[in-house]
DNA sequence: CTGTTCAGTATAGTATACGATTATTCGAAT
DNA sequence: ATTCGAATAATCGTATACTATACTGAACAG
């Protein structure tokens, strides 16, 4: 695994855990020091993430985590709803014991940040689809909304509604029940509505 | 526009025009010399493209244009069929004179490489959707299949079937006819089948 | 007191340099 | 003639170094 890969993993993880707030500037020297490398691999990793809009390079000002508008959230969830059900549909007949165990583990791990646990759960169910591009796109869509999902769930203590839906989906997956796909769609609808409502009520100060 | 952006545009364009064959190695020094810059911005641009799977970095061997399997093509077209109709649907009521003119221009420009003209046409119809992430994802999916589309259309002289479908779609768009969306879907189905058949008949030597 | 100019500082962006890894060449041995 | 291996060349990946741009704050003018 190259240095660039490692830095990318670390930064993506930080985003999924909500450690990088919207509007925050990523100081290249600081990241380089923190990871014990030079700026070069740091910049290359950031460019990868910028390719997906996970952060934005502004000329001579560096990389910033963009603030999302309600429209952004609408787009991101539209993309997720387009792609994720297909990933699940393809993975459903191929789901292994390991996949199911990982999904269950993600559900039980109360210590994880909810957004990271959420992605672990979804990834476990998708990873056997064999569609690497789609999986990667979806991961970064998750990371893009993570900072906001954390904002609106904090205080709620790991949304019980979402947890229940996850459990239901996992149950259906255990029986290779194709209803899992429509349940996933409804689950995404709920998440989408919640986030869009939050963003309209709390417009990020530019 | 930063140096990295320029290099990225040049390399993406080269891919869309099919100037970079599958399996080809991208020599960083050579690209740097060709563009009159150092390796650093070249590598950063390549990392952006690698993020989408448009090329792959192999440890200590550099960046290579991956060969597609029929499964890859299936995934790519599944993603395109998921995303592009939505882009068109959203753009349809907002299509401007300029968008339509650009689309028509792309149809008429017989001198362009077919894959580049094809993307010009589609982009013209999608760009008013306001969904930048989706647009970007779709562009790179186009670029990913371009080398193969060129292979199987060469000799055929700009597939007349596809051209006719484009003309029909454009016509529907002019009247804001929502049928344009289903026509687009069928168009993608046709392209998908053609490419998958080609790849199964001509499996790329690893 | 407010606005503006002008150093000084911090940071980004790119070029150069160099060790590390991989590919290639060429001669020797079978 | 073919294969093996060591020396050479080519290329990558990253660190260091330099330049350019943007931010900060103090001195000054209005």
Write the topology of this structure.
Two copies of one chain form a homodimer.
Chain A: H1 3-16, E1 25-26, H2 28-35, H3 39-51, E2 56-58, E3 62-64, H4 70-91, H5 97-108, H6 114-126, H7 132-153, H8 160-174, H9 179-201
Antiparallel strand pairs in A: 1-3, 2-3
Chain A binds a DNA duplex (30 and 30 nucleotides) through helix 3.
Which fold name is given in CATH as the topology of the largest domain in chain A? Four Helix Bundle (Hemerythrin (Met), subunit A)
Helix content of chain A: 55-70%
Whole-number tally of structural domains of chain A: 2
Number of helices of chain A: 9
Terminal Cα span of chain A: 37 Å
Total E-strand runs of chain A: 3
Rg of chain A to the nearest angstrom?
Answer: 17 Å
Residue stretches of chain A low in confidence (pLDDT < 50, at least 5 long) are none
Oligomer: homodimer
Which CATH class of the largest domain in chain A? Mainly Alpha
What is the CATH superfamily label of the largest domain in chain A? GntR ligand-binding domain-like
Structural class of chain A: mainly alpha
Q: Can you tell me the overall shape of chain A?
A: globular
Question: What does this entry look like structurally?
Answer:
2 copies of one chain form a homodimer. With 206 residues, the first copy, chain A, is mostly helical. Chain A has 2 domains: 3-64, Arc Repressor Mutant, subunit A (Orthogonal Bundle), CATH 1.10.10; 70-201, GntR ligand-binding domain-like (Four Helix Bundle (Hemerythrin (Met), subunit A), Up-down Bundle), CATH 1.20.120. Helix content of chain A is 69%, strand content 4%. Chain A has helices spanning 3-16, 28-35, 39-51, 70-91, 97-108, 114-126, 132-153, 160-174, 179-201, and strands at residues 25-26, 56-58, 62-64. Chain A has a 3-stranded antiparallel sheet. In chain A, α2 (28-35) crosses α3 and α4 (70-91) runs antiparallel to α9 (179-201). The first copy, chain A, is globular, with a radius of gyration of 17 Å. The interface between A and B is medium-sized, with 31 and 31 residues. Chain A binds a DNA duplex (30 and 30 nucleotides) through α3.
